[in-house]
Every structure is written in structure tokens, then in C-alpha cells.
Amino acid sequence: MYLYTAQAMREADQRAVAMGYPSLLLMEAAGKQAASRLLQRFEGRAVDVLCGKGNNGGDGLVAARWLAHWGHPVRVYAAEGQTGDAAVARQALLAHGLEIAPLSAWEPAPHSVVLDALFGTGLRGPLEGFYAALVEKVNQSGLPVVAVDLPSGLPHRPHIQADLTVALAGLKNEHLFYPHRAACGRIVLESIGMPPRALHNPHLPEVLCKTSMRPLLPARPGNAHKGLVGRVLVAGGYRSYTGAPSLAALGAYRTGAGLVTVAYPADCVVNPPLEAVRLPLLEWNHADLQAVRAEAVAVGMGAAAGGVRAALAALELGKPTVLDADALHKQVLSAYVKAGLPTVLTPHPGEASRLLEIPSEQIARAPLEAAQALAERYPGLVVVLKGGPTVLAWQPQEAPLSPPLLAVNSSGNPSMATGGMGDVLSGVVAALLAAGLSAWEAARLGVYLHGLAGDLASKPGLLAHEVAEALPSAMRQLQLGGVRDFWEPC
């Protein structure tokens, strides 16, 4: 599944038409799906359909016709001047005997529902004048709103605040990225019959979902033992951050690692899981770490000033590595690029800001672009830019002229915004690396599982170790097919 921009979806529409698929069928399916979802959520209430001049308005006109056909009370308010498929939809509606009032005549009616089909993904700037006032009038009415594809006005202000958004054909950026996602309310994704080849576009970001993540789950053989299913070395810790390496170790164990060794400064009181091997060190050096048998390393969690030394010592092990927190320095990343090891780095926006030398606010506004910039600056390293949602990027060293691979996570929730969550994620990814997954596979599956565990454990006051404890349930549900992605109907 891909994440579409407005331009990418227009190109998909054009490919479908070029293949011989009539665009009018797409509009017919879109309107019918929107009407159906509205009735499922708000059956028994009259519907006011607000339609613009473009194809989104045409979807609304089709929806109004189906609502009337199903015997549902509906009032239609539309702009004048539809062309193409939207004009055909208007004529079909009139043929059914429905009246179309001008948009200026709309007034909120008690106990009704608004179907917002004013503007879709083609909006080129903020709404002004009459349409800006209409959007504000809808928002102030207090009526529930169902948006067709996108709440009108997004990604600008003012925009409709919807209770339900029926996404059509594919998810758009606004469906996943905040603050726009908050305007969509509940999101359901509906097929409109577009040929799969028309939607296929590997240059777009992948949306991490159960369908693509389930095949990546590592198999556990019947003759498994702790040395066969992946051994992880966690290197981190400082006097003020003794919990960080412990949480990473817990995340690794709960993701299936057979053995976890925690290396930390000897002057720290670190309490890793009882099952972990402890390795207190007087200093970070390659010789001491070399004695640990491990297939993957997670380094930097809570290491403070020792993060660079720990990461450079771990580099000499030649193992797949997760670099987090205090290991995220330019010197370290450049050394790992030169070494060519499978490596995953997991910065939050503040750490990415330091690496890219741009304000963290700019990264928060454009996380995909920031992750891509990091991947291009450090080719071969998989970038996991943590946030809501987390985004991933990877520029393979063997393909420097190709655009980086991009992915956006769909699992997780705001209750995970607490200390230690990133440490658990580092352990999860390290365990998957130790199990034999590539860096790109381990990062994508690890991020999705981490968010899914957060969804299963979600509650006010959620703690990082509780997410770690939910990881086995997340893996089991994904394996058994019991996961429901957020855009699927209830």
C-alpha cells in the first residue's frame, strides 16, 4: 500500500483512464461508498450534501442520488458550473427528481448530518471569501460531518472538522500526518474499483500495514535454542539514564531474542531483565565487547558522553547495529557508512535537527523530507525518524542515483509519547536484526510491531515497559491475522 499526494492520485486516475477504465465509474463508486459509510454511522438522520464544482462535488452528487434511491431523506446544495463527469452526475441526480439548491441557501438543520463534498485533494491554496465562511459555518453548526476523501480545506486553514472521512482508492498524506489527521476524525479507506496497476507506484512511500508486515515475521524453528534465534548486545547507560539499556534489553527479549547481554559503565547501577547477561565496563573498548557472542548490537541508549566511544567500539564487531540517542553523532554515522554494515539509526526530531543542522520545527512539519535528507546524507543507513507517525528512509549504497525508499508507519498512538519508548524500539529492531532480517526489513517490522504493541496496551499513563510486555501479543496477533489497521471498518 502506498501513500499518495494529490498529484500522485491524479496520475493514478489518468493511468486508469488510459487503461480503458471509465472515469465516470470511479466517481460512481466513490459516491456510493461515501453514502454507504454515512448510513452505517448515522442511519436515521437527514443528510445535507454540500457539493463543489469539481470531481469531489461530483462524488457528492452521486452520493446524494444513492441516498435518495435507498429512501433516505436528503437535501442537496451545490455550486454551479460542473463539467465532465461531475456534470453527468448532476444530470443523473436531476433525472431522479431531486432538487439542487445553491450552496448559499444552506442553513444547519437540527439532527441532520453534513456530507462534505466541496473540495478534495485538488485544492491549490487556502479557502477564502464565501467558501471560507461556509466551512466555518459547518464547523460552528455542531452537526456531525462526513468528508468525501478529505475534509474540505485541507491541508490549509480554514478546513472542515470531520467526524468521519471516507478515503477513496488510497490514503493521502493528510490521513496519516498530524495536525491534518486530527481534522479527519475516524478514517475508513474504500476501494472505488481502480485497476491495481493504476495505483501501483513504487516511488511513493509505503504505508506499513498488516498485509506487508506479516510476511516479515521471523519463523522460530522447532529445534530452536537461545543461540539459534538471535543474540543481542545492548551497549549504553549513564549515571542518570540507567533505565535506557534495560528497556532496550526488555524490548529485544520480548521480540524473540534468545540471549541479551547488557554492557554498561561500571559506575552505573543498571538493572536489566533477570534473564540478561550483565557486562559492567570500566571503559568502552572493542576488546571487552568482542568477548560477547551476538548477531546484532543496539548502542547509545542513555550513554550520554560515552555514546560516541561506545558506538565506535561496537563498530569493530562488524555486526548489524542499531544506533540510538547518544550514538547519533556525525562522526559515528560517517564511520558506519564507510564500514558498510547493516545499520539502523533511530533519531527523534531533536536529534535529526542536530544531524541536519535545521530547526526541529522544520523537521516536525516535513518529516518525510527530513528522513529522506538523512538517508541521502548517510547512504546505506536506514533512517527511522520517530514521531507521530514514524517515517523511514533508506538510500541503498548500490543505487546512489535512485530516490531513497520511504515508508510511513500506521500503528501507534499518542499515549506512547512517554520516556523510554525509543529505547524499547531499539531493542525490538536489534532483535529482528539478530534473527536475520535485513536492516530495511527489521526497521519496518520493528516500528510496526512497536506501534501495534502500543495500540494493544494503550491507556492513559502508558509506560514504556508496558509496551515491551505487549510485544508478544502484537506478534501473535499479526501472525494469526487478528490485527485491524486503523482505516479498516469496525
Can you tell me the CATH topology of the largest domain?
UDP-N-acetylmuramoyl-L-alanine:D-glutamate ligase
* Structural domain count: 2
How would a crystallographer describe the biggest sheet? 10 strands, mixed
What is the end-to-end distance?
Answer: 20 Å
Q: How are strands sequenced across the largest beta sheet?
A: 10-19-18-17-16-15-14-11-12-13
Overall CATH architecture of the largest domain: 3-Layer(aba) Sandwich
CATH homologous group name of the largest domain: Ribokinase
Mean pLDDT: 95
Low-confidence stretches: none
Estimated structural class: alpha/beta
Radius of gyration, in Å, reads 26 Å
Number of helices: 18
Shape: elongated
Q: What is the helical fraction, as a range of percent?
A: 40-55%
The number of distinct β-strands equals: 19
Please identify the oligomeric state: single chain
- β-strand amount: 15-25%
CATH class of the largest domain: Alpha Beta
Write structural notes for this entry.
This protein is α/β, with parallel strands linked by helices and 490 residues long. The protein has two domains: 3-200, Rossmann fold; 210-480, UDP-N-acetylmuramoyl-L-alanine:D-glutamate ligase, CATH 3.40.1190.20. The protein is built from 18 helices and 19 strands. It has helices at 6-18, 23-42, 55-69, 84-95, 129-141, 173-176, 196-199, 210-213, 243-254, 286-290, 307-315, 330-339, 349-356, 360-365, 367-377, 421-434, 439-457, 464-480; strands at residues 3-4, 46-51, 74-78, 100-102, 112-117, 145-148, 164-168, 171-172, 186-190, 206-208, 231-235, 259-265, 277-281, 296-299, 321-323, 343-345, 381-385, 391-394, 405-409. The strands form three sheets. The chain has a ten-stranded mixed beta sheet with strand order 10-19-18-17-16-15-14-11-12-13, with helices on both faces. The protein starts with a strand and ends in a 10-residue tail after the last helix.
